[in-house]
Amino acid sequence: MLVSILAISPFSLAQIKSDLDKKVEQFLNTHKREWRDMNVPYEDGKILYDLIVKNGYTSALEIGTSTGHSTIWLAWAMSKTGGKVITLELNERRYKEALKNIAEAGLSEFVDARLGNAHDLVKQLPGPFDFVFSDADKDWYTQYFINLESKLKAGGCFATHNVADGQADADFMNYVKNHTQFTTSIDRTSRAGIMISYKKK
Ligand SMILES: C[S@@+](CC[C@H](N)C(=O)[O-])C[C@H]1O[C@@H](n2cnc3c(N)ncnc32)[C@H](O)[C@@H]1O
Question: What is the pLDDT of residue 10?
């Protein structure tokens, strides 16, 4: 036992990580132009990845898995911080395809993918979360935020997609921007727009 523990040197642990990085990068680059199910573009995935790694977040929730492009970016970030992402999807075909994609990218151990209606699942999940990515039904954006605001840790981040392309409605935007417990900005380097709301400490 002792021998096998000692056999895992810091070098071999680093090697395992870099092998995973190579696998994920290869998957993302190979499939970069193939996402067809309302998936975020590569650049937006990178924004989410950077937010998680920069802040060291470890307990993420994604609403709207689709076929798993953003989930792969979130899970890759989790592989850096030692965390896990729960992701929710209603459509069985997309859910199954996401599982396949996540496995092909080598990231299954960092993902808890659930098939079901997020309207119910979000209420049932106890949390707490330190990162939320909201990217499902836009007419439910405010309700998701309300259901999750108390489950988000102080210092945590609630990221919402499609806030600069007319998909998120003004009532939602105003609700979040005027929320006294959150500091909100919009990343407009994303063509769709990502609203980034940090919960005050
Ligand atoms: C914009 S796509 C998500 C794209 C994904 N985040 C990506 O970048 O790869 C929205 C997804 O949310 C799912 N969805 C819509 N309403 C839902 C609900 N009430 N519960 C769970 N999933 C839902 C849709 O089936 C769709 O696959």
Answer: 63
Which residue puts its alpha carbon closest to atom 1 of ligand 1? 38
Distance 107 CA to ligand 1 centre (A): 20
Pocket of ligand 1 contains residue 135 by CB under 6 Å: yes
The hierarchical CATH code for the domain 2-199 is 3.40.50.150
Q: Is 167 in the pocket of ligand 1 (CB under 6 A)?
A: no
Contact 102, 72 (CB under 8 A): yes
Q: What token pair was written down for 117?
A: 């209606």
Ligand 1 centroid distance, CA of 162 (Å): 12
* Angle of the 10-30 helix axis to the 69-81 helix axis, nearest 10: 170
- Compute, in angstroms, the gap from residue 141 CA to the centroid of ligand 1: 12
pLDDT digits (tens, 9 = 90+) for 157-197: 999 999 999 999 999 999 999 999 999 999 999 999 999 99
Round to whole Å and give the CA distance between 173 and 171.
6
Task: Map out the domains of the chain as residue ranges.
Answer: 2-199
Tens-digit pLDDT profile for residues 110-141: 999 999 999 999 999 999 999 999 999 999 99
